[in-house]
């Protein structure tokens, strides 16, 4: 049940609130989550981390609080900020929720990929217009195993600098993410 109630950046939140739907939350019950925070100086395009098909996208309205580590400890920005929730369907990973969280100075989440189109790992999915923000991946239970260094860092609440294309784990069936 870890994916239903998590302690992220000092805030207790639920996957149901993150995804905005009880039905979606039940799909990911017991699953795994990865949070990717962008800083203002970072590249602000986001890419598909896996192969598959984009099957649905919906917007959740909300404010645009900052996602910097200090502010995140005061407000549950991942479940109150403006968000775009997309569902990816992958042969290796099953269903994966790809959540884009808007933030201060990031009023626009722009998807550049169309529904029901095939995509390949690394293809551009969209971009944030200016500033820093966050993407969150939610995997179904038993579909991913994260790399040991990330698990160790997470266990110590240490952020890990990642660059586009770096591996974070592998599908329990086959493939890398």
What does this entry show, briefly?
With 177 residues, this protein is an alpha+beta fold.
Structure write-up:
By secondary structure, this protein is α+β, with helices and mostly antiparallel strands. It has one domain. 15% of the residues lie in helices and 36% in strands. It is built from five helices and 13 strands. The chain has helices at 15-19, 22-27, 69-72, 77-80, 148-155; strands at residues 5-8, 11-14, 32-37, 45-47, 52-60, 83-90, 94-101, 109-111, 118-119, 124-128, 134-139, 144-146, 169-171. It has a six-stranded antiparallel beta sheet. It is globular and about 40 Å long. It starts with a strand and ends in a 6-residue tail after the last strand. The model is unreliable at 1-7 (pLDDT under 50).
Q: Please outline the major beta sheet.
A: 6 strands, antiparallel
Q: Count the DSSP helices.
A: 5
Q: Classify the secondary structure makeup into a structural class.
A: alpha+beta
Element string (H = helix, E = strand): EEHHEEEHHEEEEEEEHE
Strand content: 35-45%
Please estimate the helix content.
10-25%
The count of DSSP E runs of length 2 or more, i.e. the number of strands, is 13
Architecture blueprint of SSEs:
Blueprint: E1 5-8, E2 11-14, H1 15-19, H2 22-27, E3 32-37, E4 45-47, E5 52-60, H3 69-72, H4 77-80, E6 83-90, E7 94-101, E8 109-111, E9 118-119, E10 124-128, E11 134-139, E12 144-146, H5 148-155, E13 169-171
Antiparallel strand pairs: 1-2, 3-11, 4-10, 5-6, 5-9, 6-7, 7-11, 8-10, 12-13
């Amino acid at each position: 049940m870890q994916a239903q109630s998590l302690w992220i950046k000092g805030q207790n939140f639920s996957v149901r609130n993150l995804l905005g739907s009880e039905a979606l939350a039940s799909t990911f019950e017991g699953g795994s989550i990865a949070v990717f925070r962008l800083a203002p100086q970072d590249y602000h395009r986001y890419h598909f981390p896996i192969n598959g098909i984009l099957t649905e996208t919906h917007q959740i309205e909300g404010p645009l609080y900052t996602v910097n580590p200090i502010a995140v400890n005061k407000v549950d920005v991942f479940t109150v900020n403006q968000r775009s929730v997309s569902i990816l369907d992958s042969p290796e990973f099953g269903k994966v929720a790809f959540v884009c969280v808007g933030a201060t100075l990031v009023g626009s989440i722009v998807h550049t990929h169309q529904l029901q189109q095939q995509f390949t790992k690394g293809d551009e999915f969209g971009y944030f217009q200016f500033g820093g923000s966050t993407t969150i991946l939610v995997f179904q239970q038993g579909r991913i195993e994260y790399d040991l260094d990330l698990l160790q860092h997470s266990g110590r609440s240490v952020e890990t600098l990642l660059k586009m294309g770096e591996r974070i784990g592998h599908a329990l069936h086959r493939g890398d993410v």
